[in-house]
Protein 1
Amino acid sequence: MSLSLLSLLLSPSFLGTPAHAEDGEGAEPAEVYAGGGLALRPAWSPAGGFTFGGEAEADGLLEAGIFTARLDLDFTFSAFPAPFTIQRALPDVPVIDTLRPEWAMVQAGGDTWVARGGIVNSAYGLEDWDDWALYLPSHGQYFAVSPGRMAGGEVGYTFESGLALSVGGGQDLDFEAPVASATVNFEADSWGTYSGIAAYPTIGLYTAVIGAEAYPAEQLTLALGGMAGVSEASPFALGSLYVVALPEAMVSPTARIEGGFDPDRAMGTAPWAASVGGAIKPTSFLKILLEGKLTGADSGVEPGVYASVCVFRPAEEAEGEEE
């Protein structure tokens, strides 16, 4: 699997235009997209020493009329300090524990409505699973404990103003618990939000997740990601504030400040962290992320240095309006 995926990622056709297949006489042509990416992740910290690993992703998308099918598969590995090892995943794909489906869904949608089912990622939170969609090579702390991939379904409606609402439910594959969720999404010239709520009644977890961006100037993006709620009656709140300079330039310096209120250690996160770094984007398919980070811990302040080198097919080319 890994060799064929790497061949796909490194081939000239990987960055080509979508293929078209006629879906019968008189019908609109179906559109087929293939994409994905490869991220290599060196890191260093006093506690863990130097580590090196990464992730490869293969994506496929088929659009035919009002119907869409999407499959994104992740393959995660570690190369140092241990010899090359595959990081096992929950067996979301029966019998297979080496691939993690980020998306595996079918969808029907019109101009204002959408209904999808399978393995989906509800549209809330500031950060994405993929390194090439991040501001810095490490996620904010809230990301690891925010709602995960859901095996189930959701329906959504977009109003004339552009405000999009959705509701859904199913089994959260990362929390291994049933979940019900609702999201609100809106994008304007000066700001956008990707937020929602999630309830896990069987484990006593109820959360509100915020993802928001503001664009006060062409040279500046402010972003906020976080979540708050209760876990088995223990309150918590986590937040990550980003300041991104020159977001459209080849080099985008970035700072992030994180804070948390978790008196009962319900989420197991650090009380604070601070990062400086940014992104280098020499081409549309190459992105280099760098970060120096300080994290508050019981033993004191823990430093760390992180990086990610990403080769990928740009989302706007690979998935058109689906993303």
Note: The mean pLDDT is 87.
Protein 2
Amino acid sequence: MREIKIYVYPFQRTDGRTTRLIIDGIEIDNPDNRLHQFVVKKPVSKWLCPYRKKLFVWKGFFHELALELNASAYRITYYGTKEGYDEFSDEVERQRKMLEQDGRVVNVETMFKEYFSVRKAVSVLADAFDSVFRKAYDENRFDLSRAASNAKKNLTEVPCHLFFLGCSDELTAEAEAIPLLKTGTKHPRAHFVILGDSWNGGGLRELLPELQYIECAAVFVPEKLREEAASVCGGVKLVSYGDSLGNAVESFLYSAYLPREVSHSIEKYYELAQQFEDYETDAYLIESSENIDWLFR
């Protein structure tokens, strides 16, 4: 059995590294290695799922790993966020089945070890911005209080444009009530297509050009319609949902959108907090800074 460890950072580190790959105790760090070229130091969006770009074909992380190592059994430990692991393990299983259909029977066991909690980071940073807001307001520094309030909103509200195809009134209402989403905004930062049980295959292809160049875009589809949607979805992220659309959307935001916001918010917090003369001695700011530091330990 081949032992695989993969570290997936949900944020851009200062050294530019977002993925580490260790196979049988040896870190893959050879630029000539195909897995190094297309996985190591690349964000998960670039290597997890299959894609085609002109003549180049990437069959997905596990498919490529199995072809590279040519083994019959794998134990993969994923170090990252819970949301990221859920997506990773689902996709690995899909690719295992694809290999099986191609006549390559392989066994795979996936395990999770939390390395960074985006949910905890959002909560910690929201509290940190509250501390800056209160201190700035008490000192009549209303420019800083407004900046702290806006920074918290950027972290806890996602301006979003929703498209509905084949959705019931109940599903539409559920989507519009998801707490993190802010719909009806003039400047959306996320575009989501929601496919309902009544989707008949139409309308999606026409929306794809608008979604292709949006940084945070996804199509949410009932599991039973996934294959049909995948046949027309192109390079736009496809996310299956079961009983709860809200949980699927929230998990996607925590894995694909909020890590970047967390990274920006950490920089913003220090930018604001350090404008106070007593930044290094104020009890509330010290506590906030320490809580942020603990996120990385």
Note: The first strand starts at residue 2 and ends at 8.
Protein 3
Amino acid sequence: MKKLIAVLMGLMLLMGCCVAETAVTEDVIQDVGKVPIGSISINGAFNLVCGLPEGYRVQPLKMTRDQILAAIISSDPEAPVMQLSVAFDETYSDVMRMNDLDEEALALLESTFTEVDPTVEISEGETGLGTRLMIAKQTDEDKFNYIDFLSIYQGYFIEFVMVPSQTATDKRLTDEQLRMCVTFLTDLDFVPVGGAGTANQVSLAGKTYVANLSDYNAETGTMKAQLKEAITLDPSVMAELGKGYILEFGEQNIEVSTVETFEDGSVLVNDEVDLRPEGDVVRVFMYEAEYMETVAEISVKVPETAVFLDGIDPEDGQILDEPTTHTAAEFIQILSEGGENDPGFAVENTEITFNDEGELTQVRRFYTPWQ
């Protein structure tokens, strides 16, 4: 989560250009219902949409898989400027809403405000849908006034800051403007993107995934699982390859400089990307390993009936002649404690399988020389 002072400094730098732009822009969005902001896809894949106060529009500032940063600016140079930040924090990946945090966790978040600005007023509120909000408000006439709202949804920190416009005659922010922020946060929607993201959005039933496994929680009986699938391309891409072509797959965008074709039909691009035709798809390999894309980062329940097949000796990390079979309890112990030479459970050496009800049935670990 960004420190408060960093957010405010960014806003102060932004406001000058925002005011100048709104003075010459006529196609301002005015109260037309929900408008798109951007997409995120780390702990669930979502499109963010929002309602806008009259006279305001969205100006995207930064868009990545784990963060959206956008300014909400008005055509009225006297109106306050707002900034929205939605950013994933792995520490809170299991937190559905801020309502789920205990008092100790809330106090820790409160300290992120007071450490930067000891005079800030901290209070609690909620959206129109009952989601808890932490509100930091600076009203000292001798200081820079602001209102900062903080909340959490599925591991994403939602921070919404309002500051007075640089050209505003009155720099004080009102309770009415505070309520406008609460309305904005009430209308902010995380719309799931079909087919990827969370346990509810990813098909687990009857599937096997390669996975990174970590952080077993004894209280909930769950572990963190990053599920991955191999990237495949349409065969038509093979005919388009040439110098200057942009090869796109997963998070990679590679400009083609060299292409080497082999007798088996495979192609080596830039001496690093190996494209291998296989049936109706082209499989992508980088540095000899098949390229994987994350489809979800979720918490997985480890039932007592789950079986662990281990092809690696956890004492020395070497390959076993025959895989050993372990109970769920033994798997949890190895996952939690490991050993000095234990290679852990990474996408390079781990598969997990779910039954038709989406329940974990098997973890399999196999030896790879590059683990």
Note: The CA atoms of residues 246 and 255 lie 4 Å apart.
